[in-house]
Design brief:
heterodimer; A: alpha/beta; 7-stranded mixed sheet; B: alpha/beta; 6-stranded mixed sheet; two-stranded antiparallel sheet; 5 helices; 29% helix; globular
Amino acid sequence: MDYNENVLVFGCSFSAGSYTYDPTYIMYSDVLQSDGTTKKVDNGLGRETLDVNGGWVESLDPKNYHTLYTVSGGGIVQHATVLEHYYNKNRLKDFDYVLLQLTYEPRCTWNEPGHIGDRFWHEYDVRAENIDMYQGKGTAKYFNFISANGKGDFGGNMNNETEWRKHMFQGMTNKHVVQSCATLIDERCRETQTPLYYLRWVNEVEQVTPQFEHGTRLDVPYPWGVGKGSMDLFLNKKYHIFAPIDPKISRDGSDTFIGHFNKAGNKKVGKAVRKALEKLR
Amino acid sequence: MKVLVIGNGESKPGSTWLSTLPKEHEYTVYTLDYGNYINYYDILTQLHKDNIINKYKHIVVQGLNANDICFYKFDWKEHLWRLEQENFEFYYCNYGVENDLLWASGVFKDKTGDTIQKRWDMNLTNEQIDYLERFVDNNSMDTIMKGSEIRLIRLLESVGIPYKLIKDTLDENINIWSAG
C-alpha cells in the first residue's frame, strides 16, 4: 500500500499499546541483597497486561506509515540514541516528520553498549498494518530520578544508600543530560529539515521538561493528570487501569496501583493528536 | 582584554597551558574537576544569569568532553574558592573532588572510587558497582556527549561573545583567538 507520509514516532510504555487489568499478573525484579545475592521481588508494577497494538498511534491517520520506538521506563535519552542512529545512517531525512511523546523526566534508562538493532526487538504481532514497532529489550538499567521520596530509583538495587542518591537527584547534571539529548534531537531534525512535533504527556515543571528550539508542540491537552488542561482520562475507569494494591509491595508505599490507559483511553489520545497534526500538515 | 576560561582540572592554578597564554590579558578561570560540557553549560548559564558574562570579550572552553558523568552539588558556585595570581583570577572547587560524584568507566575499581565511596559512605558491593557502571558503559553515552556539545555551542552562539574550544592542552600551537 502507498502511504501519504512516513513518520518516526518515539514514546514510552504509554505508547507501547493498550493495557488490561489483570491482578494475577505479577512482575518481579531481581533485587540485590546486602550479602551480594539476588532476590526476586514483586515490584508492584504488574497487574495489567499489554496488548501490543500500537496504542494511541493506532488512531493516527491510517494513510500514514508509522515507525514506532517505545521504551518502557525510558525517555528522551533512548529516543535521542535511536534518532542519532537514523541520522548517522543518513536515513532521518527519509521520514516526513518526527513525532515525540514526552513523559516525565529525567529518565536515565540506558541500554548495554551495542548496535540499536541488538537493543530493540521488532514486534511482529502489531495488528495495525501501518505501524512498524520496536520495543526496548530487557538490557536496560534504570537510573530514574523521579521517585517520590526524592532519591534516585535505581531499580531497587541501592536501597541502603541515601545521601549520595539525594545529592545526585538534587543536582543539575541529570537534567542537563536529558536536555542535551533533547537538543540533539532538535538539531538533527533541523539539519535534515525533518519537522519535529511533540506532545507533553503530563504537566511537568519546565525545569525538567525537554525544550526544543525548532520543534512544534502539539496543541493537545495533557493525557495524564486531572482538571484544567488535561484530557480527564486519569483515574477514570472507562479509560485508565488502576486498582488497590498492598502498600508493602508498591514502589513508593502508596495503596493504589496506577497503570496505563486501556484501548478506549488510547483512542481518545490518538484522536486528539491526529486532529492537532492535521492542523499543521 | 578580559578573557573567561572554563575548564576541568587541567585549568587549575599552576597549570602549564595557562602559563603560555599572552600576559597582556586578564583571565578569569572557572574549573570543575572531571567536568565536561554538561557541567560547563551550567557554569556558563549561571554567569549569564548573574550578568557577569558581559564583562568578557572572549571565552575559552577547555576540555575533551570526556564520556564521564560528574554530579556536582546543586549550589556548587557557593563552594568555589577564589585565588588571584598575576593576571589570573581563579574560581575552583573548594574541596577539589570532595563534593562530587564521578562516574567514569571503572572508577569504582580504582583509588578515586575508593575516595568517593569513603566520602559518601557508600559501601558498594561488587554487584552494585557493576550496576552503576552502566552510567557510563551504555549505548547512549556518545549521543549524550554529542548533544551536550551542540547545546553548549548553541549557548555560546547566543551569548554573542567570540569563543574557542580547546581540546588538547598539550598542543604546542594552541591559539585561543581563532574562531570556534
